[in-house]
Specification:
- Strands 1-2-3-4-5-6-7-8 form an eight-stranded antiparallel barrel.
- Strand 2 and strand 3 form a beta hairpin.
- It has one domain (3-172): Quinohemoprotein amine dehydrogenase alpha subunit, domain 2 (Lipocalin, Beta Barrel), CATH 2.40.128.
- Helix content is 7%, strand content 47%.
- The radius of gyration is 16 Å and the shape is globular.
- With 174 residues, it is mainly beta.
Length: 174
């Protein structure tokens, strides 16, 4: 295994498995996209409940037991009106992980799923991709959420080399 890839695997617990984002999440079938319960250009009331920017606290967990390990870290997540997602991970130096870009969709009142990806670098050379899947539940009142997160680190050929899990809590930025 190349040393750059070995470093990514060693760093992955720090990488923000944020957004690292329990067990590997089962995403519903179909491609993630914009909320499905609305007319074009008209987000539903439920879809608007996730739209906006959130401060997120991420806690890495053991995928089998769900028990936390390591120190929690912060991230930011912005859910756009048309089902887009941008994330910034505070758990790692930005020279080793880019911002995440992705999509989200409405599942049911207060429930959403999201998928994002970020490029990973070791010593200035691209070494892989981090793919994060989340199941998000908005807390009644709409200003907080909880999320189960699954993260995969993929090598340059798109092959998984590491899987991690996390739980996150978000607070709407207002």
């Amino acid at each position: 295994m190349p040393s750059a890839l070995r470093k990514i695997i060693q760093l992955t617990p720090v990488i923000g498995l944020a957004a690292t984002l329990g067990a590997t999440l089962a995403m519903s079938s179909g491609t993630l996209g914009a909320a499905q319960d609305r007319s074009p250009g008209q987000p539903s009331a439920d879809a608007r409940r996730i739209e906006g920017t959130w401060r997120v606290q991420i806690t890495l967990v053991n995928c089998q037991s769900g028990l936390p390990f390591g120190a929690a870290f912060q991230a930011l997540a912005t859910f756009g009106r048309e089902g887009t997602l941008i994330t910034a991970d505070g758990g790692l130096n930005p020279a080793t992980r880019t911002a995440g870009h992705g999509v989200w969709r409405f599942l049911s009142p207060g429930a959403f799923e999201a998928l994002s990806e970020a490029f990973l670098f070791t010593n200035g050379v691209r070494s892989g991709t981090q793919r994060i899947r989340q199941e998000i539940q908005i807390v009644p009142g709409g200003s907080e959420f909880t999320s189960r997160v699954s993260s995969q680190v993929l090598d340059l050929n798109g092959q998984p080399v590491f899987v991690g899990c996390a739980m996150s809590e978000g607070q709407r930025m207002e």
